[in-house]
Structures are given as C-alpha cells and as structure tokens.
Amino acid sequence: MTDLLITAATLAAGTRGDLGISGGRFVDVGQLTRPQRIDADGLRALPGLVDSHTHLREPGREDAETVATGTLAAARGGYTAVHAMANNSPVTDTAEAADYLHELASRTASAEVIVVGSVTKGLAGEELAELGLMNASTAGVTMFSDDGRCVMDSLMMRRALTYVRTFGGVIAQHSQDSRLAGPGACCHESEISGRLGLPGWPAVAESVIVARDVQIAEMCQSRLHVCHVSTAESVDVLRWAKARGIQVTAEVTPHHLYLATAEVESYDTTFKVNPPLRTDEHIEAITEALADGTIDMVGTDHAPHASEDKDHPFDVALPGMLGLEQSLAVVMERLLNTGRLDWPTLVQRMSIAPATLSGSRRQGRPIAIGEPANLVLVDPSARAVVDRDASASRSRNNPYHGRDLPDPVVATIWAGRITHQR
Amino acid sequence: MRHLLSAADLTGEQIGSILNTAEEMHQLQGRAIKKLPTLRGRTVVNMFFEDSTRTRTSFEMAGKWMSADTINVAAKGSSVSKGESMRDTMLTLDAMGVDCFVIRHPSSGAVAQAAGWVRAHVVNAGDGTHEHPTQALLDAFAIRRHFRQLGTEGWVGKKIAIVGDLLHSRVVRSNVLLQRTLGSEVILVAPPTLLPTGVEEWGCQVTHDLDSVLAEVDVVMMLRVQRERMQGGFFPSAREYTEFYGLTPERLNRLKDGAAICHPGPMNRGLEISSAAADASRSLILDQVTAGVSVRMSVLYHLLGGDDSQGATR
Amino acid sequence: MTIPPPHTSAPPPSPRVVWDADQIGRAITRMAHQILESCGGADELILLGIPTRGVLLAQRLSAAMRAAEGAEVAVGELDITMYRDDLRHQPTRAVGRTLIPRPIDDQIVVLVDDVLHSGRTIASAIDALRDLGRPRIVQLAVLVDRGQRQLPIQPDHVGRFLPTSQGEWINLRMAEIDGFDAATIVTTGEV
C-alpha cells in the first residue's frame, strides 16, 4: 500500500496542515516513504463518514445492489463504513449469515461493512433470531434490526432489548404502527394524500411506537436506536426520553431532511419511501433536532431498487431511495450552509455517533497520529447537478436526480487506501 | 386534448365542448343505425386492471358507435412479484400501434403513470380512489339535461350534495373538481370516518348532518357504501348508516321541488338509497347510464377526432 | 361558410364584390320555385341545411316557398363534422347541431349549402344521410358553384355559377351573421 501525503488540508476544527498515512494509519509526515501526494489546499479533511443505515441487497438481490457496488457508492459519498441491514435473502438472522456477509465484504467492499443482524427470525416478528450467536460470530454483531418492518409485538421488543443488554447490544427499530393505517399506506397522510387518493401513514404511527419503545428500553435498562425519525412528534418523544436519561439514539435520513411529501403528487415512485416524505413542519422539526442533538446522527437508509420493482403503481412499487452518494451534500445544503451546524458537529453526526452506535473502534476516530486512516476530503464550495446515471449504485432510484446540490467529496480514504478520488 | 386523466385538466370551455358534442352523440341513441364513421381506423384498447362491466361496456359501445376498433384487455393487477412491470405491459401494447388506451386500475395514479410511458392517448376510466373524470362528465351531462328540462340554464348557484363513502370514492374527487370549474356549489356529506384527510381544503362545505342540507340542494348524489367497510370500523352497522346517511323515503319527501337524485352505481338498495328514491321520477340514475355512452363518445372524439401529429411525435 | 385561405402568411386579401344583395335575393326566389317544381310540391320535401350558412339558406328557401306558394316546407340541420374525410388533418373541430324535423325515410331531401367547391362536404353529407334513413330522392341546392370539383358531384339547383381560379376564394356573406348579403371573391395571390 502506497504511503499518502495530504498537503495543506484543513481539519474540522479549522487547523491546517499536512497529513501522513502509512500502513493504514495516520503517521508523522517524516515517516513517509515515497508518498503519493494529494494537494488538499482549500479542502476539509474529515474523519471518514459512517452510515448507520444501509441496504446492500447482497445476498439476494444482486441485480439491485451488491456489497461491491453499494460500498463503492458509499466511498463516493465520503463514507468509510456502513451498517448493512439484515433484510437480505436469506435474512441475516444467524451467525452463518452474518459471517457470510462479513467474509464477502472482506473480499469485495470499498468500505467497512458493519453487519446488522435481524431481531426476529426471517423478520417475521415471531421468534428471536440468534442474537447471541451472531454477536459471538466473526462478524461480531452488536446491532439488531428488523428494519423494513416494525417489531410490532411489545413483548417481543421487551425480550429483544432485555436479551442484548448482556453483551451491550442495541435494537434499532423501524418505528411504525401498521395498525394505524390501511394495508396500502404508501405516503404521508395529509391533504395531498387525500387529494391523490393514496392511502397514507399518519405521523403518529411513528411516534406511538417510539413512545412505547423508549419506555420499554427504560424498563429493560437497555439501548434503543430509532431508525429514520421523520416526524415532529417523534422528536418530542425523543427529547422527553433523553431528558429522562433513557439510553436512546436516533437517526434521520438525508431525504427526510430535504424532500417533502409534495413530491408524490407526480406519482413518481422514486419518491415512495418508508417512512414517507413528510410536510415542511416535520422537516423543520427533524432538522432542528439534528442540529441540537436530539437526533444523534444521519443514517441514509440507502435502499436500492431495480427499475422493475419501481415501475409499478405507487401503492404497489417498493419503497426506498438511494442516499449514500448525496447524503453529505444534503446535510451541507440544509444545515451547514445555513449555519445550523458547524464542521465539528457535522463530524459528530455523520461519523462519530454512528460509529459509536455499534461500538466500532476503527471508525469515527479523530484525525491524529496512530489512529486508523479513515478520511474524506471535502470541497466546501463545489456544486453539481445530480445525474442518477453517474451513480456507482446498480440502481437508479435517486431522488436528487436533476437537482443542483453541493458536490463535496474529492477523495475518500479507508484504512489508508484511496477508495474514491475525482 | 392529449389525455383525459383528471377532471382538473378540463377548463370550463372544454367541459362545455365535451357536453355539447355529447348532446349530438345522444341523438344517435334514438337512431336505427347507431354508427358514425368518425374514428374509422383508430384502435382503442380498454385496459381494465380491475373489473367493471358497466364502465367497460360503456366505453366499448362508445368506441364501436364511432367506428373505432375497440379491444378489451382484462389485464392482471400489477404485482412486483410477477416479473412483468406495469410499464412493460403498457409498452408492449403501445408498440402494437394503439391510438388510445382507456384504463381502469385499482391503484391511484396508475393511469397518469401509464400516460407518461406510452405514445397513445390515455383516458382515465377510474384509478384507485383517485379520479373517474368521465363519470363526473356524464353526471354533469345528466344534471344539465335535468336543469334544462326545468327551464334553467347554467351552474352558478346550483347546490350538489355528494353523500357517502367519500374516502374511498374516485367519483367524488372528479365531481368536486368538475363542478367547481362549472361554478356550482358542492356540499360533502359523510360520517367522519369516511372523509378524506384534508377534505376541508377542497373548497366545499363539509357536514356530517345530511338532514341539515337536504332541503336546500338541487341534486343529491348518493355514493355506494361497501358493506366490508363495517369490518374496517368505518361505521358500526348498516342500520346506523342508513339511519344517518341513507336516502330513505322520508328524506326523499324532504327534497325540494325539482331536486334530482344521482347515483353512479352499482347501488346498495336499502343501504345508502331506498328503492323509493332510486325509482323516483326525479331519479337520474338510468339517465346517467345512457349519458355515459354519449359522453364517452364525445371524449373519444375530442382526443382522437383531430390531427394526431402532436401525439405521435411526442 | 367561410373557406379559410390555406396559408396564413398569404398577402392581405383584396375582396371584390361580384354579387350583391338584390341579386342574391332573386336567386333564392328562383331556386325556391325550381325546387318545388322539380319535387312536385312541398309534401314530402325536407330541406337540410349544412351548418352554418347552409342552414340560413335553407331557412330562406323555405320562407321563399311559403311566400310564393304558401307551402310549409320542413327545414333541418345536418352537421357533417363526424363524417369528414379530413378530420386527421386539422385540430379537433367543434361539432355542430344535427336537427332532423321528421324521419327522412321515403322523403325528398334537398341538401342545402352556400358554396359548392370540391364536393367533399356534400359527399360527407350523403354519408351522414345514409345513417339517418333512406330518402326516396336526394337533391343538392347551392347558392354558388365555384367549380374545381374533386369528386363526381353536381348540384341540382344553383343560384349562380362563379368560376374561380386557383388562389381565389368565394366569400359569401349573409345578413343573419354578417349584417349584409354579398358574394365577394378574395384573391390570396400565389397558392
């Protein structure tokens, strides 16, 4: 692996200097041997971003995404690690399945793949998956989620939270009470859904589960992570829970920060996502919550889908949209460039907090000598119009296509290796 | 006109033109030879992803009486598991040289999506719980004839109550849009559980009390209520529904002189409408059916009766 | 019927009055006599005007018949839009009114139009009639025959033959719409 010398980079805190990388770690520039030079004048050097919520689709739907293509998209977006959700085929609900993914990633990935196991067998919500064996496997799973589905059974949620406490695990919940909406719910319930004749999810379908789960977590003295918070009511519940000292973290997706439910008026299924895009009041509430730390982190919920799964009527098409490549751009546009977030806090929300979520010792670390060399070089002023066909993902369900956004990622370095450079 | 997807797409002038042409088409029903050569050589495909004998037959007759070649395709509902996407289904038929698709689909928005994929003209024959614009047009046609027989002309100031399951009704959305363009006043009457979210922003009076508006309306349009809705917790029992929202013989007697009764069909006699009301002389229910063919002929003429170069080169 | 010039970019037309109101009035009276004579009276006669000016002309012919012989002749309207052979070459046309005063089976139907040119309108009208019933005799009355036929159609009753060359158009004005009666020739230059 070639040594790297990054010159004149500006760190998140504002200090400027040269960075040396050798053997996968940051080293003193004096120790470099014939390094490859990267001029970072005018660029920010940030710790590699960590995604708390990624769907890689492998094994099972390699036509939509693979570990290789998904992590390449991650690298393009400045990520050096992703949490790979369990809803593959087969579901990651055994130690064998977790190790398969872990081993696959070691051969093909362009970013670290942190394996997330399911909470229940086959995501069916009926029996616990082998949580302990997954934790004890080579993959060392610490985070469990039935994401895509909510663990609806309160008792199952209680058991899972209780069980993972023994090894410091965390249950990541897709908070959504399916009994508060009809079976075809496919967008946010609002004046727009009423007009379009689309069955909607009311906002409280999310917050009632968040409210239930934080109280179960408190009772069990265990850790809860709330996936993709999308409503003002959920934010209120989270504020209350955090004030009480409940061990709860939460994430928000870039698309919920940037896109509103009005997008569905065209019935373009690219904008079908679950939880659904919300209204401006909700967007403002979750943006504020990310700024003030009520929401701890950004998780992309990168959800690639083949066109044959999207070219359907709105209520039938699969939910989900891409996110890894434009995530940093959206956070910069919505929070950094508007002064609601500074660089160190952005690093906290997009690297440190998600790394801490699963207890990673390699990710979310400071840029300092001896630390793992996970790095993203960011041009704060570059902009571009997003072209979905330029994506590294196998899928094209990119909701930012055609929009003018920051185009910040100049280079991504994972464990001392350049995984993306433009 | 390239497509008819929503009643919102129609200007007052276009509605007038469609209704006036429909009047001419209406004469055809009294003739021995019910045939016009107008759409000779045009192919109209009725794609029904959801069963509807009445609407499909109405469109089929409309096409045939205009000499179009009409083909009925009973398409399977879209499913992600079946492999062929709805887009593939549409593109395959479009490639065969279809001039116009008449589409009924159980999913809201599916017809608009299809229109974005194909070269041919598209008529929305009902999409999910969204819209059914030709139904609103035929309602307007039947209502206008009724007003004219009473010697009144014009829509402004006319009050139309739409009563029933507004949440699951595509008829109500198209009717509200169309009637508001025409200038009449629409009053929506339903139990609170069967009102769409945000209905108060539709610009209509909304009430749960049928009796409070019954005496002032010129038209009362009763919508079908499916008995399955009881399981969904939308209302407790058929008896209770009829008590509060049914057009019973007693309510029939409270309608003002000249007020008409509409129902898009199929009816649940005894539930939302009594036989006395359905069969009353002021009932336009069969006139609506007759109007359906004339209005659909007119719609096909407006889409296919002229220069098609714009559509073909799109 | 105003026949639109084929090119909108043509130079401004220079109208030339070739037939005034008196002459038109006399022609209508003469045609009314001729029609009644050839049809053996008013009993089975139906005048079907082709909108817009054909209908006005049919009404005038009927009035002239009443004035001359006290004959009450039924007048109707026959819109031929749905039967045109050029529908696909133009934007969608507004459909006119068809009003048949009584069943046309075994009647003598006289189609009435203002200006006869290519003959296509009349061919469409004959098609339309066929769907309405089976008249015993169908005749054609036009106020102006300007020649240049494209189909084998000849009028039975003509107000006046006004041959035109290419680039010339007959513009018939009628008082009910235009405020005065006149036939003008409009030259549009090269066509």
Describe this structure in words.
Chain A has one domain (48-364): TIM Barrel (Alpha-Beta Barrel), CATH 3.20.20.140. Helices cover 29% and strands 20% of the residues of chain A. Chain A has twelve helices and 20 strands. Chain A has helices at residues 67-76, 95-108, 131-136, 154-165, 191-196, 204-220, 232-243, 254-258, 280-292, 307-310, 327-336, 343-357, and strands spanning 4-11, 16-22, 25-27, 36-39, 44-47, 49-54, 79-84, 112-115, 143-145, 170-173, 187-188, 200-201, 223-226, 248-252, 297-298, 375-378, 383-385, 404-406, 409-414, 417-421. Chain A starts with a strand and ends with a strand. The relative contact order of chain A is 0.16. The mean pLDDT of chain A is 97. Chain B folds into two domains: 3-130 and 292-312, Rossmann fold; 133-289, Rossmann fold, CATH 3.40.50. In chain B, helix 2 (53-65) links the parallel strand 2 (43-48) and strand 3 (69-73). In chain B, helix 5 packs across helix 11. Chain C has one domain (22-164): 3-Layer(aba) Sandwich (Rossmann fold), CATH 3.40.50.2020. Chain C contains four helices and eight strands, in the order E-H-E-H-E-E-H-E-E-E-H-E. Chain C has a five-stranded parallel sheet, with helices on both faces. Chain C has a three-stranded antiparallel sheet with strand order 1-8-7. In chain C, helix 1 (21-39) packs across helix 2. Chain C is globular, with a radius of gyration of 16 Å. Mean pLDDT of chain C is 87; it is low at 1-12.
Concise structural overview:
The complex is a heterotrimer of chains A (422), B (314) and C (191). With 422 residues, chain A is an alpha/beta fold.
- By CATH's scheme, which homologous superfamily of the largest domain in chain B applies? Aspartate/ornithine carbamoyltransferase
At CATH level 3, the topology of chain C is Rossmann fold
Average pLDDT level of chain B? 92
Architecture (CATH level 2) name of the largest domain in chain B: 3-Layer(aba) Sandwich
In round numbers, the mean pLDDT of chain C is 87
Q: Say what oligomer this is.
A: heterotrimer
> Approximately how much helix is present in the residues of chain C?
25-40%
CATH topology category name of the largest domain in chain B: Rossmann fold
**Terminus-to-terminus distance of chain B:** 13 Å
**Radius of gyration of chain B using CA atoms only:** 19 Å
- Tell me the total number of β-strands of chain C: 8
Number of domains of chain B: 2
The secondary-structure class of chain C comes to alpha/beta
Major sheet attributes of chain C? 5 strands, parallel
Number of helices of chain C: 4
Main sheet of chain C: which strands, in order across?
3-2-4-5-6
Number of helices of chain B: 12
